[in-house]
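Journal club prep — side note

Before the paper discussion, L.F. wants everyone to see what a predicted structure for a comparable chain looks like in C-alpha cell form. Sequence:
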Amino acid sequence: MNAELKKLQKETGVRIWNGIAVVSSRDIAKNFGKSHDSVMRRIRNVLSHGDECFFVSTFVHPINKRVCPEYLIDRSGFALVLNSSYDHETAFKYLEAFRKMEEELGEITPSEILVIAREAIKEERRMEAERKEEEKRRKGKTGFFDDLDLS
C-alpha cells in the first residue's frame, strides 16, 4: 500500500474488509461532523430499499464499554447515505479513497468480490443472531436458580 493510499485510509477510515472497500458508520459520523445516531438513522432509512451495501458490525463504546451497533458500508452504500446535507469536499475525498482501495483489490474479479461479500453478510447475520440470543438469555436470568427446573 503506497503512502498516498495510507494517508487517505487514515483520513477517511476507508479500508479493505473481506475483499471489499468499506467505511464504518462511525468514521462517516466523525468526518462529516454528524452524530453516529444520525448516520445510523439515515442508514436504516436506506436499508428499507435493500441491504447489499451495508454490513452489520459492532464496536465497544470507549466511555461506557457497551457493545454498540455500527455498519460497514461499501461505495454504493456510501453514495446512498449521502445527501446534500453532507459536505461535498469530504464526500469526494471518500469516493477517491474507495476508488484507490478498489484499485488495490485489482486482482479480485467482481464475481469473487460478490461471493466474499455474501459470505461476509451471512457470517455477520449469524453472529448478530447469536449475540441477540445470548443477550435475550442473559436478560431472562436473574440468578443461579434460573437454570434449575423446579417443576
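L.F.'s comment for the group: The helical segments are 3-12, 25-32, 36-47, 75-81, 88-104, 110-140. Keep this in mind when we get to the figures.
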